[in-house]
Fold:
Amino acid sequence: MLGFRLGINYEDLLGHRGLSHSLVFAIILSLVVTFLAFRQLLPRWTRLVLFSYFFAVTASHGILDAMTDGGLGVAFFAPFDDTRYFFPFRPIKVSPIGLSFFSARGIDVLWSEFFWVCIPAAIIAGAVLCCRRIGAFARQYREPNNT
Ligand SMILES: [Zn+2]
Structure:
């Protein structure tokens, strides 16, 4: 919305789903956050782990946008190539800019995002938590008892 007010067109490099959704942007943002926001690391959290995490989080936005059924696509390779891409599988309904979510279309969009984004994310988070619990349980019985 701010870009539109500043005269930046949707299809421009700085337009919606342009440079800010590119892999280069995800790399730069992840490096900045990893090195500036985390001067001291927690145990087991290396800079590579942090960078990988922030890269996955940032890049996933463009990936999910490329799975929507509207817009012009995502410029994954900007600023080197401003071609906009969609994935062949596009089940997520796009939210029109300025959409009122208390309309039938708004509820349809929210339901689509809940089904295709929130449920898979919850399943992945649950699987990761289960793996961590199983790993902690296994370590507890593998390590010698110090009591
Ligand atoms: Zn987006």
In short: The mean pLDDT is 89. The longest helix spans residues 104-142. The pocket of zinc ion is lined by residues 17, 21, 61, 65 (CB under 6 Å). Residues 22 and 76 are 4 Å apart (CA to CA).
